Amino acid sequence: MISTLFHAPEPAKKYIKDVEGGSWSMPIDASTFGDPIDTLYLFIVAIDVLFFALIVATMVYFAWKYRRRTKFQKTSSITHNGKIEFLWSAIPAVLLIVIFLWGEIDYMKMSVPPGDAIDIRIKGQKWFWTVTYPDHPGVILTDEIIVPEGRPVRLTMTSEDVIHSFYIPAFRVKKDAVPGRYTNIWFQATRVGEYNLFCTEYCGDDHSGMIGVAKVLPWDQFEKALEEAGRLAPNTGESMAGFGRRVFERRGCPVCHSVDGTRLVGPSFKGKYGSQEQLADGTSVTVDDNYIRKSLLEPNAQVVSGFTPQMPSFAGQLNDEQITALVEFIKSVK
Amino acid sequence: MSTSTTMDPHQTGASSESHGHGREPSYLVAKPGLWSWLATVDHKRLGIMYLVLTLLFFLVGGVAALAVRTELLTPEGDFLTAINYNKMFTLHGAVMVFLVIIPMVPAAFGNFFLPIMLGAKDVAFPRLNLMSFWIYVLGACFFLYTIFAGGLDTGWTFYTPYSTTTGTAVISAVAGAFILGFSSILTGLNFIVTVHKMRAPGLTWNRMPLFIWALYATAVVQVLATPVLAITLLLLAIERTLNIGIFDPKMGGDPVLFQHFFWFYSHPAVYIMILPGFGITSELIAVHSKKHIFGYKAIALSSVSIAIIGFLVWGHHLFVSGQSELAGVLFSFITFAVAVPTAIKVFSWTATLYKGAIDFTTPMLYGLMFIFTFTIGGLTGIFLGALSIDVHLHDTYFVVAHFHYVMMGGGIIAAIGALHHWWAKMFGRMYNERAGQIGALLVFVGFNMTFFNQFVLGQQGMPRRYYTYVEQFHDQHVLSTWGSYVLGAGLVWTAMYLIASLFKGKAAPANPWGGASLEWITQSPPIEHNFHETPVVTADPYNFPEIDRSGTGRHHEH
Amino acid sequence: MRPQGAEPHPHPSYLQHHFDNREQQASAAKLGMWVFLATEILMFSGLFLGYFIIRMFYPEMVLGAHEHLSKTAGGINTVVLITSSFTMALGVRAAQTNNRKQCVWMLALTILCAGIFMVVKYFEYSSKFHHGMLPGRFYHAYDFGYDLPKYAHVFFGIYFTMTGLHGVHVLVGMGVLTWVLIRAKRGEFSAEYYTPVENVGLYWHLVDLVWIFLFPLLYLVK
User: Fold this and answer.
1) Chain C residues within an 8 Å CB radius of B114
2) Which one of B3, B190, B224 has the shortest CB-CB distance to C1?
3) Peptide bond before residue B525 is cis, with ω within 30 degrees of 0
4) What are the φ/ψ torsions at residue B556 (nearest 5 degrees)?
5) Which domain range does residue A107 map to?
6) Do chain B and chain A touch with ≥3 beta carbon pairs under 8 Å?
7) To which H or E segment does residue B276 belong?
8) Are residues A263 and A220 in the same domain?
9) d(Cα B433, Cα B445) in Å, to the nearest integer?
10) Neighbouring C-beta atoms of residue C59, cutoff 10 Å
11) Contacts with B464 from chain A: Cβ below 8 Å
């Protein structure tokens, strides 16, 4: 069990802090849902604390006051009291109905997006999120969602494989991403900043690695950021290998492939280019440009022995320039 | 030769059962040899065997929990590999749910005490009872095989499509759970028939101890809900082997359908886990304060209504699954409805203490502890029942904290209380009371230290089933893990002094606590046939002689 | 003092020790069987629910696929099972009225009917296998020229699961009936004690009842 130490690469997103203060505080309220949800939450806390205190205080008081003092002490013959029993059934019932209605009304508001919400598409797969913007073709974000402050957004979500769940605590939103269908949520961010994004439906080995960041930007910066993100092309003066590294990081590859030799879900790239690998079917192959290209487009055709065929295909998601850059990058990882 | 047939358990140190007939051998030694145990039809021996096995699996599940918590001491993955962590929390959940909490109270304490409390010689179908036990063992073997066949990593909830596509030993685990379900169903069936048909003369429904009412309500749930689990698991296995396409979207199926099927059983299952605990608490509080339970009828009926309403709330596990909003609203409403009968119980137990004569014995301490921890568990369920709040809290540590408070802070605490309350009766020995009180304190502190701050963690967004986590959650996890070590120590301590008492404990009298239900008129431990003659019951089981019937205050004859 | 209501010693061999008298024993056994039947109903309900959901998702597929089930075979089986329930009821009556010979005959006929059911089922299943109409990923009816709607494998999955589980219950029933038949032949039953016959009868009627729902839903309903 305590076998080879398993160190997942340390993503910077592990250090995003989205709770208000110390270890016991509430999460930051960064969306329009924060107020209604936190208010109801605190209301329930108040009711719970009240009833708990009442019950425990009464229990402790009775336990003390009516502790046995003599060996043949007499006890009361009371067995029931209709009035008290009615009250302690009716009062909780009324409070519960109030809480139910309150929760239900807020829930309904959370279920109906406003008409002018910006469309965003979410795709979950083992073990990363792909975020695209129908109104901004070419923008593909991995483990990152960028939203404007003060405008509603509507997410249409699905999964490629198993059930995942898209959760941003600071916005108080969560919905399962289910394969074979679409689910929807909406929210409106109210506070510029970076917040945790978690997958919160157990999905296998790297479920806890399927985390990301929700970035809220002021409206003018939002458009610009998307353009930046959409443009996954070499910068002037940038080497192909350098560009390839950016593609590698941007498209979620580090989730499964390390560059330092650590074996993750997939093989490490360290020193891989040019090496001979044995495949699952016994034949062997040289890791050259063609093999890398094929692995990107038909990943499960020639799987290296000892690894499971889990890699998703990037056909249609990477252009030739990006593929070439990736090849150059992998060459450079010695 | 005693001919008395009314119960009078307060003849000091003895009873009509253990006097007059001379001391017959107890059930423990009545028939010697290993085979007489393995092939026994004596409900008491079966109860003891179930007790030993469920406690053993509690240890297994507990060790798995400690491994999980130890990994969570640091935000990185450094104690277990990711896959092994996933297998560990799955093992913890599956073992605790299917091998410990669901069977423990009914099969161990229920088997032992239900017939005796009803004045019967055995359950209605003793041979079926034996079969139930061996079916449990068979199911457990499948689980053990699963561990050695590479383990299971789906979580105890087996959600599709993950469970239909993962490479781990799903089929053997599912087969184990399927088989265990039959053990549960047959035990429930036996109890229902026993309660209906084998009560002693004079033992009307209104004179049954509340533990029996609780077991009866549990049995109804066991019998009606478990078959649906059987079908769910069968369909899961068929989907995995044949790909029929019922849950797999690529083959035309619906993965959320699995969740509906699964929770249709598994929600009532949690009532199987807690209802017996409610029954135990009624016994503990009443007997150790020598006061008639307050609100007997309300508590009895609330058990039945919880059992019924519990069948209608399964969709509250699916609020964010993509289920329709209307379904969410209906399920939320009914979920709140089930809170009312539950609250009634808590208030009634507290009221029972009023003007009692409370002894701070270990059973009473566990009874009081139950009120404390179960109430937290129940109250926090309110957050989860509210739709808008559940969106934020679903699948976070808040849920983990909630269900540990009700299942462990409720079910297990009650079971430990029952163990102490009936230890003398089952084994004929007294455990050391001071050791018991220390153990109770350790368990109480350890439990709350482990789980209370998990509510905060969940509300801050920490997801469930995470192997590594973001830095900001570090301090809370450290606190929780240390709490788990204290809790573990408390449980080990408890095991130690209980086992020691088997060898060194004082011989127990028939009625050490002064209880008034039928088990206290039998020997400690009871003879093989429980009673020399079928008792005739003329009063209810909370008819303590300490109760002042001099006319002041209300006075109810039953 | 004697326990209340006990039979005078020695008590009949069929009276188990933990019961006070035979009425209590018979009554307990009957209640137990009814509770068991409730569990069976709930188990099959899960499958029926699955069927209804698939029908809701893919109404045309179900219509197309179920045309290929043999209504004749299903019809014969329905008649056979209803007959077997009749013979079973007669068997119980015979036991109740101390008619050992008729009881034995009726039980034997019931087993025979069950056997016929299984034989017809064997032919039905063989035909499906030979035409590639198998559940899930084994479905390959197109190899035999059958042009069925897209998710037909789902229908056949449910078909085989439901009729298969029912078939298992028929087989188990045959086993239990055989055992009861042997006991009846030995003369163990009488007007005072016919509980096993009565209870196996209850079980058998349930098996018949499940089929009476299965047949129209799977084979007939448009």
Assistant:
1) none
2) B3
3) yes
4) -115, 120
5) 34-111
6) yes
7) helix B255-287
8) no
9) 19
10) 10
11) 200, 202
> How far is Cα B373 from Cα B550, in angstroms, rounded to an integer?
37
Please name which of A258, A5, A206, A199 lies closest in space to residue B468, comparing C-alpha atoms.
Answer: A206
Q: Is the pLDDT of residue C6 over 80?
A: no
User: Nearest-CA distance from B314 to chain C in Å?
Assistant: 15
Residue A86 CA: distances (Å) to CA of A41, B249, B282, B304, B343? 27, 50, 20, 18, 12
Homologous superfamily (CATH) for B43-521: Cytochrome c oxidase-like, subunit I domain (1.20.210.10)
Evaluate whether residue A23 is within a structural domain. no
Contact B227 C46 (CB under 8 A): yes
Q: To 10 degrees, what angle do helices B325-352 and B296-309 make?
A: 160
Residue B391's CB is within 10 A of a number of other CB atoms, namely: 24
Do chains C and B touch by CB distance (3+ pairs < 8 Å)? yes
What tokens appear for B325 in the block? 């909003």
Tell the burial category of C52 from Cβ atoms under 10 Å away from its Cβ (0-12, 13-18, 19+).
Answer: exposed
Q: Would an 8 Å CB–CB cutoff place A181 in contact with chain B?
A: yes
For residue B254, what is the nearest residue in chain A, using CA coordinates? A180
- State the DSSP H helix or E strand holding residue A104, giving kind and residue range, or none if neither: helix A82-111
Q: Does B63 touch chain C (CB under 8 A)?
A: no
B388 in reach of chain A (CB within 8 A) = yes
Helices (H), B320-432: 325-352, 362-385, 387-393, 397-406, 413-427
Alpha carbon separation from B476 to B287, B450, B455, B469, C88 (Å, rounded): 39, 10, 10, 12, 66
Please report residues of B whose CB lies closer than 8 A to that of A110: 388, 391
* One-letter identity of residue C144: F
What is the count of residue pairs from B and C with beta carbons less than 8 Å apart? 124
CA A191 → CA A214, A220, A221, B153, distances in Å? 11, 14, 14, 39
Q: Please, what are the averages of pLDDT over each run of 10 residues along chain B (558 residues)?
A: 39 43 82 94 97 98 97 92 94 97 97 97 96 98 95 95 93 97 97 96 96 97 95 94 87 91 96 97 97 96 96 96 94 96 97 96 97 97 97 97 97 98 97 97 98 96 95 96 98 97 95 96 94 92 90 50
Q: Taking CB atoms and an 8 Å cutoff, what residues of chain B touch C16?
A: 126
In chain C, which ranges are continuous DSSP H helix? 22-57, 59-66, 71-96, 100-130, 152-185, 195-215
What are the residue boundaries of the structural domains of chain C, listed by start? 35-220
> Within an 8 Å CB–CB cutoff, is residue B346 touching chain A?
yes
* Chain C residue with the nearest C-alpha to that of B230: C43
> What is the token pair recorded at B403?
């269900």
A142 and A180, same domain (yes or no): yes
Query: Does the interface predicted TM-score (ipTM) exceed 0.90?
Result: yes
Chain B partners (3+ C-beta pairs within 8 A): A, C
pTM of the model: 0.91
Instruction: Tell me which of 3.30.2310.40, 3.40.1440.60, 1.20.120.80, 3.40.50.620 is the CATH number of domain C35-220.
Output: 1.20.120.80
Find the residue in B nearest to A58 (Cα): B350
Interface touch B249/A179, C-beta < 8 Å: yes
Residues A122 and A226 in one domain: yes
